[in-house]
Amino acid sequence: MAESQPALQSLVAEFDDVDSVSAAARAVRDAGFQHFDVYSPFPIHGIERSMGLRATRLPWIVLGMGLTGTTLALFFQWWANAHDYPFKISAKPLFGIPANIPITFEFTVLLAAFGAFFGMLVLNRLPEHHNELFDNPRFRRATDDGFFLAVEARDARFDTRRTRELLQSFSKHPVVECHASTESRAFPIWVRAALAGAGALALLPFAGIVNARFRDATSPAFHLIKDMDSQPRYRAQAANPYFADGRAQRPDVAGAVAFDHFLTDPKTLTGRDGENFCGTIPLPVSDQTMLRGQQRFAVYCTPCHGQAGYGDGLVAQRAANLQEPNWVPPASLHDPVVRARAVGQIFDTIRNGVRTMPAYGRQIGIEDSWAIVAYVRALQRSQNATVEDVPPAERASLGTR
Amino acid sequence: MTASATTQAHLEEPYARPKLVEGAEDFGAVTQRVCGVLERPKPPRAWYIGLAISSSLTLLLFTMVVYLIATGVGVWGNNSPAFWGWGIVNFVFWVGIAHAGTLISAILFLLRQKWRTSINRAAEAMTLFAVCCAGLYPAIHVGRIWVAYWLFPFPNQMQMWPNFRSPLLWDVFAVSTYATVSALFWFMGLVPDLATLRDRSTTRLKQVIYGFFALGWRGSARHWQRFERAYLLLAALATPLVLSVHSVVSFDFAVSQVSGWHTTIFPPYFVAGAIFSGFAMVVTVMVPARELFGLKELVTIRHLENMNKVILATGSMVGLAYSTEFFIAWYGGNPYERFAFMNRAFGPYAWAYWIMIFCNVVAPQFFWSKKIRTSPWLMVGVAILVNVGMWFERFVIIVTSLARTYLPSNWGYFKPTWVDICTFAGTIGLFFTLFLLFCRFLPMVAIAEVKGVLPAAHAHPEHPKGGHDHG
User: Fold this and answer.
1) How close, in Å, is residue B371 to chain A by CA atoms?
2) How far does the CA of residue B449 sit from the closest CA of chain A (Å)?
């Protein structure tokens, strides 16, 4: 019988209660066996002493994982909120123990719990999908109401006959042999194929990311969920069958007067007189115009051109400090070339931009643009004035100072 | 001997310590009793009726969530000044209920309260299902739900990190850690019982499915030794975790500067309230479940009575917290704080406040009577009142403070929409659907743990070869 069967793995004795299996375990331990195990439907208290088991090192794993969690959480919070992207909120410190404790605590517990659960599985070598003990149908009692003791054949003191006698002296049930399985321990082919297929599919997203990372795209990014910039709407000049004339863009209602449309003079609108820039401001200029121009200039022009128009605004100063390589310094309005320009060209520059200066036509209205032009002219005159510009009555007071 | 007759016997002999398990005295009977629930060919008719109702409500929940996402959070009643409405009320309500499971499992385990073994499995499952309901709300209330993952710290194209000093982020970490650890704790306890089901299964399909999740468990003493150590460590980790989670939830309010929220009493008061509501929910579901599935011998009147005592204790703590809040509002001398509390009790939401007081402070006092404490259907009535009261507590705290903020011109009155109401009803449906499925497909009582507290599980000193003193 023994020749035809594969190698003997262990001898298994069956018991009906805690006392007899504990007694057998003590006897096997006292006989000097190392490789044996007790199987029970619930943890038997004191069995580890009966079997002579050492304490598990699981608590150290849990402690290590917990400390790792504490350290990682504290370091990451400091790195993210105080170092990589300093997050200033109400002048509070960027990193402080009290405010960073809740997440540190939660992360410590999380990693320690992983340590306890997965550490237990790893030390127990679980999950295990196949074990020879289950070849014996009676072994199913081990999770119900039966107790088993298995002595493994690899133990140095194992002797089939004597070990069997030792076990049999404690058990009412016949001691049975457990043999190495004749079947392959590997999973069936379809399980392996499915696992390999799932593994390959799981790599696809990563392959897609790598592909997108290292290739130039010719089409716009595909958005699975549309953002707010793509919403259902009609564009100008598009067709819309809802209206009788088939146009999405609706003409003005009869008799409507749209503001801003009463300026029809091309010179006022473009600053050009035919091909050339016009030399005079086409709108009336008053004190109010000048004050408006000064105020608008302060809002839109001073960041780059500076209060006095020398091209030394805060933006220009910062760009110069940072030595930005692509920065084109804003022009000084007092440069002879700029001073020589027709008012129409200054107007055109404001409306349409030049070099790196953006077009302000969308932000500044037609009249305000001319008001700024008028103010720029006054500014240019103020910075390049001669004694002749001072009214004769005031010239005497200049000399006294 | 029936359960009620045994109870009667205990009532007559007050010094006799009631048994943890009645009737079933040997291991096989415990296995048979618990697995019998899953192995009977058809569940009771009440199970089908319950599942039909609860799964319809779950369907309603999914419909409401899809409607919300497709339309926007405007379908809820949240609006100026009460920007936090039912969404956060229900979140805190469900998270609170989720606390009993891990508390029963972890704290009672550490305190060596062996009576927990019969109820911990179902209570832990309840925890997970309540966390599912709770976790849904923060996920769906953010408006653009498809970018909800921005809550988590991950390297992104904006090169920004979340603010780790914000209570709302603490909340994300606390609730997700709690859900993960509770699931691990629950699953780990289930592994030996899944092995029992695997070894009893009569069909190949059941054997494969239960066997897959049983991870090859075979009850080895070496495995049990590490398992028990891991279980003890998880319990020790989960205990402070339970207390931290509702403390962090209370920080969402306490760290802000709204009158009625900005108080240091919040963390302990919220934790007591969470345990209170959680135990009430365990009683609410366990009494019908033990009737329905014939588990009266395992989940005895003694278990239920112990839970009712916890409800009485925590209910009184919550009542103390309510009165302390009023005392501090008066004693603190802050006129805004004083107004906030007078407004709670006598303002436009007085009706909600007094429902809360009745359900949370008055109703549990009935448990001073042993008769009510030990009658299954009476205690369910009180427990349901407690659940209602705890929902109103969150409503009162959140809505009364927001509807009457510092700026009187901004005052308003919060009204829920039909979507709010249907979504909340839907989460109740989801909770009971999951619980009913759990009752049908997983062991409702921890088989291995109950066997461990049977008298036969311990070696007998009088046995010739047995004994505790050896080794």
Assistant:
1) 36
2) 7
- Domains located in chain B, CATH noted: 3-143+167-459 (1.20.1630.10)
H or E stretch at B96: helix B86-97
CA–CA separation, B67 vs A26, rounded Å?
66
Cβ of B233 within 8 Å of Cβ of A92? The answer is no
Residues A97 and A73: beta-carbon distance below 8 Å = no
A109, B180: Cβ pair inside 8 Å?
Answer: no
Per-position pLDDT tens, chain B of length 471: 444 444 554 444 444 455 666 665 688 888 988 888 888 888 889 999 999 999 999 999 999 999 999 998 899 999 888 988 999 999 999 999 998 888 888 888 888 888 888 888 999 999 999 999 999 998 898 888 888 888 888 887 778 899 999 998 999 999 999 999 999 999 999 999 999 999 999 899 999 999 999 999 999 999 999 999 999 999 999 999 999 999 999 999 999 989 999 999 999 999 999 999 999 999 999 999 888 888 888 888 888 999 999 999 999 999 999 999 999 999 999 999 999 999 999 999 999 999 999 999 999 999 999 999 999 999 999 999 999 999 999 999 999 999 998 889 989 999 999 999 999 999 999 999 999 999 999 998 899 998 988 888 876 544 444 334 333
Cβ A331 vs Cβ A268: under 8 Å: no
CA–CA separation, B232 and B219 (whole Å): 18
Angstrom distances, CA of residue A394 to CA of A287, A379, A383, A400, B227: 21, 20, 18, 11, 102
Q: Which residue has the tokens 């409607």?
A: B67
How far apart (Å, rounded) are the C-alpha atoms in residues A29 and A42?
Answer: 21
**Which two three-digit tokens encode residue A160?**
């089939």
- Ranges of each domain in chain A: 7-180, 266-395
Nearest to B463 among A19, A26, A107 (CB): A19
What's the complex ipTM? 0.90
Quick one: which of B176, B192, B266 has its CA closest to B226?
B192
Q: Does B192 sit within 8 Å of A42, measured CB to CB?
A: yes
Report the SS3 class of residue A354: strand
Chain A CB contacts of B26 under 8 Å are: 145
A-chain residues near B181 (CB < 8 A): 109-110, 113
Q: Minimal Cα–Cα distance from B256 to chain A, Å?
A: 13
The answer to whether A102 contacts B174, with C-beta atoms less than 8 Å apart, is yes
Q: Which of A58, A96, A143 sits opposite B226 (nearest CB)?
A: A58
CATH 2.60.15.10 fits A266-395, yes or no: no
For residue B208, how many other CB atoms are within 10 A of its CB?
A: 11
